[in-house]
Structure formats: C-alpha cells, structure tokens
Automatic annotation (TrEMBL):
This is Probable nicotinate-nucleotide adenylyltransferase. InterPro entries: Cyt_trans-like (IPR004821), NadD/NMNAT (IPR005248), Rossmann-like_a/b/a_fold (IPR014729). NCBIfam families: cyt_tran_rel (TIGR00125), nicotinate (nicotinamide) nucleotide adenylyltransferase (TIGR00482), PRK00071.1-1 (NF000839), PRK00071.1-3 (NF000840). Pathway: Cofactor biosynthesis; NAD(+) biosynthesis; deamido-NAD(+) from nicotinate D-ribonucleotide: step 1/1. The gene is nadD. It comes from Aeromonas eucrenophila.
Length: 215
C-alpha cells in the first residue's frame, strides 16, 4: 500500500515569491499532496551565483513555509557541498521514502529546458512531474519533451497516488507573471514588494538590507 504523494519544489529562491508559492499551494490542493517539501539549492548548476547566501535563502524559505500548512523545508542540497543536481536529490528521497509517490514541481520554463538537465531521462524513474503554467513560456515543446508527454502525461490525479513515479501532470494554476529576477530589480529600485512575497520574507529582506539600491 502506497502512502499519500508528496510535492517537492526545488529552486534558488533568491528570494522565494508568490510565483513559487501559489502554484505549489494549488498543486497541493488539486492533487491531495500530504506534504510540500521546499528544497533550496546550494550551487545552482545552470546559472550565475545567487545574490544572497545559501543561509539567507534558506531562512526566507523557512519563513514562507511556516505560514503554509503542510510545507516543510529540506536542507539537503544546501548541506551537500557540491552542485545541486535534481537527479541526486530524487534518488536520495526515493531511498528515504520507498513507499511514497514523489511529485516534483516545476514551472513551464523548466519543462521546456528539461532536455538540458543532468540525466534528465532518469528523473521520471524516481518521481512524477507536476508542471505549472508560467506566463512567457508557451507549451511549444521541443521534440524530446513532446515525446515524453505523449508517453507519460496523465489527466488523472489518481495516477499520482497509484504509482510512485513516471507520470506528468500539467496544472491549470492561476498564471503568475513574477520571477525572482523581476523582484530583485524592483527591490533594487527601492520599490515596495508588498503582495509579491510573504510579509515575513519582506520583513527579513528589509532587516537584512538585501537586494537594496546601491547608494
Ligand atoms: P530567477 O528569476 O532568479 O531565475 P525564478 O523566479 O525563476 O528565479 P527559481 O528559484 O529559479 O525562481 O525557480 C524555482 C522553480 O519555480 C522553477 O521550477 C520555476 O519554473 C518555478 N517558478 C518560478 N517562478 C514561477 C512562476 N511565476 N510561475 C510558475 N513557476 C515558477
């Protein structure tokens, strides 16, 4: 008998914002996820170094998680002293939770770039993929992603309960046009970030003078 599925959302979270949180809350409700695990990465393999330290990004993710029932923070990538590859994280989680279906959440931008991910074809051997709509990224799939969807997409949330891994579910979440890049630019321009991220995270940013305008 399998346990209820859990959600996993990895990211740089520099900082965490409503574009991460709303799709996660909506997937949690739509799929009946027992838990939503937020996993901040340490050394993102595909991008420039984050603006904030790993500890600061972790602190902001913990503040956001504390406001959402079922949300927990998983520090494994921050504690791992090497590049954060999703495949390594999923293999570790699969070993730790052998009877739990794992649902790895990502935005449409990430699905479109999936063939560039390290050992991407193996991801579905360990988890399902739950993909959120994201304005600016249309479902014009590259051939490899289209083939993957043809084989593994499901419309039935129960498939994510009945199987440990291997299905792709496309969410019809409220699209939110926000990126951390945009939010950092707004903060660097001295603007008020209210309603774009949790109040506790906005307070942390103000207290620690993160992403501030250069004098
Ligand atoms: P940056 O602008 O710094 O690149 P980001 O806002 O894209 O950051 P990440 O931490 O890189 O955020 O994203 C983590 C995950 O959250 C990715 O799977 C990404 O697709 C997803 N995500 C981020 N913003 C949104 C959004 N507005 N809507 C849906 N998914 C999102």
């Amino acid at each position: 008998m399998l346990k209820a599925p859990i959600g996993i959302l990895g990211g740089t979270f520099d900082p965490i914002h409503i574009g991460h949180l709303r799709p996660a809350i909506e997937a949690q409700a739509a799929l009946g996820l027992a838990e939503m695990r937020l996993i901040p990465n340490h050394i993102p393999p595909h991008r420039a170094s984050p603006f904030c330290s790993s500890e600061q990004r972790l602190a902001m993710v913990a503040l956001a998680a504390a406001e959402n029932p079922g949300f927990v923070v998983d520090e494994r990538e921050i504690r791992r002293d090497k590049a954060s590859y999703t495949i390594d994280t999923l293999i570790e989680l699969r070993q730790a939770l052998p009877d739990t279906p794992l649902c790895f959440l990502m935005g449409m931008d990430s699905l479109l770039s999936l063939p560039g991910w390290h050992r991407w074809r193996e991801l579905l051997d360990h988890a399902h993929l739950v993909v959120s709509l994201r304005p600016g990224w249309q479902p014009d799939y590259p051939a490899e992603v289209a083939e993957l969807l043809a084989r593994q997409q499901t419309q039935d949330p129960q498939d994510l309960h009945r199987h440990r891994h291997g299905h792709i579910w496309l969410s019809d979440n409220l699209p939110i046009e926000l990126s951390a890049t945009r939010l950092r630019a707004l903060l660097a321009a001295g603007q008020d970030p209210r309603y774009l991220l949790p109040v506790s995270v906005a307070d942390y940013i103000a207290q620690h003078r993160l992403y501030q305008p250069t004098p």
